[in-house]
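Predict the assembly for these two chains.
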Amino acid sequence: MAVDSRLTRWLRAHRPGGPFRPEAWRSPLRGPWLTSVLGLVLLVALPVVVVTGLLSYIAYGPQFGQAIPGDIGWLSLPWFEWPSRPSWLYQLTQGLHVGLGLVLVPVVLAKLWSVLPRLFAWPPVRSATHLLERVSVLLLVGSVLFEIVTGLLNIQYDYAFGFSFYTAHYWGAWVFIAAFATHIVIKAPAMVRALRSRSVRAELRTTRADTRPEPVESGLVATAPTPATISRRGALGVVAGGSLLVGALTVGQTVEWLRPLALLVPRGLVPGDGPNGFPVNRTATAAGITAADTGPEWTLVLLGGRDPVTLDRARLAALPQHTATLPIACVEGWSTTQDWTGVRLADLARLTGVDIPASAHVRSLERGGPFGQATLQGNQVTNPDALLALRVNGADLSPDHGYPARVIVPALPGVHNTKWVHSIEFRRTP
Amino acid sequence: MTRHPDSTQHPEPHAHGPWHAGVLLAGFAVTTYAVLHVLDDPSLPGMLTWFLAAAVAHDLVLFPAYAAADRAITRVDTRIPLVNHIRIPLLASGLLLLMFLPGILRRGADTFHTATGLTQDAFLHRWLLLTALFLTTSAALYAARVLLARRSS
């Protein structure tokens, strides 16, 4: 269109200085091949982070209204009943979501570095479609960093952002999913072309002294490059090294024998030794649980049958005890596997006369607080390893781990394993 | 398919044709549908602010800072490139500071204690020790390279 080209001509004649001059971008490493290698890593890995994140929403039990945000329309995975087998399912999916998300931070930063000249391309907009694409890239960059920043702050308990983490992280994810899918569809042909333009093997043999800019015309390739201060293989090595470093310092959040290596994350710290010396998610003091609440006067109330059944701790301990080695896995990505001993939830259901419960509602002594109660699915109640635990690793539960009794269910998100249990209502309907 | 007039200057690997416009609009439709769900959320301005801050955090804040630091480092020049022995340990240390800033600076100390029953006191020392470890390892490798280069010449 005439107007368009006149505007374009005018813009080209009035190019601002600084980063808008192509000569300002000096690195000989930038180019479509390098960007595409980083893009390929993200193309493979980020969908895993997305899907495991959406699985976590389902694991929280949206059918009971206990997943946040509540109203999500059709923006979710197709719903299915979250399994209670294998017991490490949530440990795996959420460990992947957080662990992979952390490890990819250096790759995302490197990818942003590699395409930065594009932000200052001149003229800034060349057509209506180009304008749409630039808006889409803004949403892509904004959402990926929004998800990373809110995630990083959340797992470190720094709620500087002041809004609901769950709500923001969920909707931020959908902004990301839309922009990411758009970006893949638009850029995939260019990525494939760029990846084919150079041999990986040759690149891995090229020293710093022999490193030259990619011989292609592209807004990414420097027009006035300085000599390379690092080879392309070296730069990729630095990014991979960054990912390995982050991985080494965080995998101990969930892999027990590597916990001493988790030096900078909350769950590398362990509260003392002994049978109860494993990470706590909410202390008894913080939950407002007093010694009087959990003393000899404490009783468990079982509801759902014709009459309530009340049991004190001695009677609970006299019931058949079962021991299961189960992980408890938090939405924050950390987990810990312990030997829990207690009464099967299915046995408690039978005591009330509800032989095949379709769901169960557990209440804590904790008053208020978002996780003072939780609803369990039928399969989670009837799993033979689903327990009302009284002991862990051969000792009574400590106050911080839920004394006098806590729920532990295979593959259930950590916070739904209610501590300081006050009552359980077994229901014949879901 | 006609090439865009600008393509002689910066040939794009793809044309911005109507097909791309369709894909982009479909993406925006999903984004709009998502954003509609938080329109009545009282914390929407906060979320938008954080979103926009995130969008420019790398390109307009982080990049100028690390590029300036790198220019300072690359002014150093010796026969065996010293620059990478300085910039790589600093990059590793900077990455850890960036990602684990809340613990290192003891931000959110109350919520941290509520959740874990512990304190963040250990993190600053650990980060400093890791930084020292990166720097000394890199210096030792550099010394080894210099010695080997001298012996072979």
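The mean pLDDT of chain A is 96. Chain A has two domains: 2-261, 299-427.
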